[in-house]
Amino acid sequence: MFAAATYAERRQRLKADLKTGLVLFLGNREVGMNYTANPYHFRQDSNFLYFFGIDKPDLAAIIDIDNDREILFGDDISMEDIVWTGPMPSMRAWAERCGAGEAMPMRRLAGMVKKARRSGQIVHFTPPYRHDNMLLLKDLLNIPTPKLKASASEALIRAIVAQRSYKSDDEIAQMEDAVDVTGIMHVAAMRGAMEGQTEAALAGMVQGIAVSAGGNLSYPVILSVHGQILHNHHHGNILENGQMVLGDFGAENAMHYAGDITRTFPVGKKFTAKQREIYEIVLAAQVEAVASLKPGITYMSVHLAAARRMAEGLKALGLMQGDLDEAVAQGAHALFFPHGLGHMIGLDVHDMEDLGENYVGYADGQARSPQFGTAYLRLARALEPGFVLTVEPGLYFIPELIDQWRRQKKFEQFINYPALKKYRDFGGIRIEDNVLITPQGHRVLGQPIPKTIAEVEALR
Ligand code: GLY
Ligand code: MN
Ligand code: MN
Fold first, then answer.
1. 334, 328 Cβ separation under 8 angstroms
2. What does the alpha-carbon distance between residue 82 and residue 39 come to, in Å, rounded to a whole number?
3. Among 129, 158, 374, 386, whose CB has the most other CB atoms within 10 angstroms?
4. Cα(134)–Cα(123) distance, rounded to whole angstroms?
5. Which residues line ligand 1 (CB under 6 A)?
6. Is 119 exposed, middle or buried (0-12, 13-18, 19+ CB in 10 A)?
7. How many CB atoms lie within 10 A of CB 159?
8. pLDDT tens across 149-191, in order?
9. Distance between CA atoms of 374 and 371, rounded to whole angstroms?
């Protein structure tokens, strides 16, 4: 945990922003995997972590702004609990660690919330994403579960985004740590991958590094010789010479800050000539996008510049054609680059996505594009110092999508379908780094992780 004052200051700011009401935070609970006592790995809710810091299941908290009270709810453990799980600080001690004034047993929560509702106080809560918390909220607030997300407090969402979007120096140090562990995972994968091995062997090895460092994965490992499948969690393929491995994985450190890095490398010692050509296009787009980052620039414009840069590369290879400004404006590039350039990152790998992507990534009045590809851009707003974001362009050859567009004669003026035949089995390449926006420009977080062709091949 950070010092108690850090959490107290964050709550103070939240109170100042919201001005009135009662804010209800529900921590996460253990979730049974195949029976209750055999749970999934526990992950605390990130908003709870941000404002109270306690990494422990079965907690809730209220900030009663109108009556100036901060109450942590949870139960002291019994001797029976101690026998099975060991001793734990008391709830009073936890409250002190996060600077909250009061601690109460969980059974008091319902009464406190009901009293607030009876007295006409607004109850602010964030959109729930865990079913047990949905059921609890339904009981506490008498809101049907299907309506809970839409009933979440927009004022609270905006106030949280207004704080969590700007990483403090303490947080940035944690993020550097997460990215450094993530870098070790990637170097181990690039060094260790062997022809004939399963993807699972590599995925398990990198997961072990994240866990050994005291944290865990920040999201399930994406690692595949079929890099064109964007979020491929199947690890059943055997690595074959001539293929590339796309590895998109990261550690979250013990404080739960996330790293999210992608590297693509050849199974053999060297990239093929065809792989090099595409790799160099993605790398140039990535390096140029990172270089352009500074306060004030919109991430939408950085996304579109990267799309344009990759379209130029594809035109030089004869895969795209025609007026590229028009091609990018109409979305033709999305055949090869069907996702966004990046997203905020912090306590969540897609930071604050539980609060709603548009609150996090789009300014008021900035509409989200409905166009295939650009629609997936999670961050489009103007960048500000303290933001940490990912830069992750990629080029993919998705046979099913190519076939569909070719049949539909979609964007024939921009896409050279006959030339694409030779790329059907190419796979995909993505390169991703995590970048802090500074007052002067930007800083790539963590120790550099090999990404030029020479650097990557030197590890094979
Ligand atoms: N790791 C998922 C992503 O890059 O957004
Ligand atoms: Mn990623
Ligand atoms: Mn990412």
1. no
2. 18
3. 374
4. 15
5. 219, 248, 260, 343, 349, 392, 432
6. exposed
7. 20
8. 999 999 999 999 999 999 999 999 999 999 999 999 999 999 9
9. 6
At 208, list the tokens.
Answer: 């072990």
**pLDDT of amino acid 11:** 98
Q: DSSP states of 293-348 as a string?
A: --TT-BHHHHHHHHHHHHHHHHHHTTSB-S-HHHHHHHTGGGGT--S-S--B-SSS
Where do the structural domains in the chain lie, given as residue ranges? 4-164, 169-459
At residue 61, the 3 state secondary structure works out as strand
Which residue carries 């049949």 as its tokens? 407
- Quickly state the pLDDT bin for 21 (edges 50, 70, 90): very high
List, for residues 229-282, the tens digit of each pLDDT value. 998 889 999 999 999 999 999 999 999 999 999 999 999 999 999 999 999 999
In CATH terms, the fold of domain 169-459 is: Creatine Amidinohydrolase (3.90.230)
> Which of 179, 219, 344, 351 to probe ligand 1 with, by most ligand atoms within 8 A of CB?
219
Reported residue count of the chain is: 460
Same CATH topology for 4-164 and 169-459: the answer is no
Chain center to CA of 144: 29
- Residue 73 bridge partners (DSSP): 60, 104
% of the chain surpassing 90 pLDDT: 99
pLDDT (average), residues 191-210:
98
Q: Is the CB of residue 381 less than 8 Å from the CB of residue 361?
A: yes
Give residue 384's identity as a one-letter amino acid code.
Answer: E
Question: Which residues are found with C-beta within 5 Å of the ion, ligand 3?
Answer: 260, 390
Cβ(303)–Cβ(340) under 8 Å? yes
Nearest protein Cα to ligand 1, atom 3: 260
Q: What percent of the chain is helix, strand and coil (3-state, nearest 5)?
A: 45, 15, 40
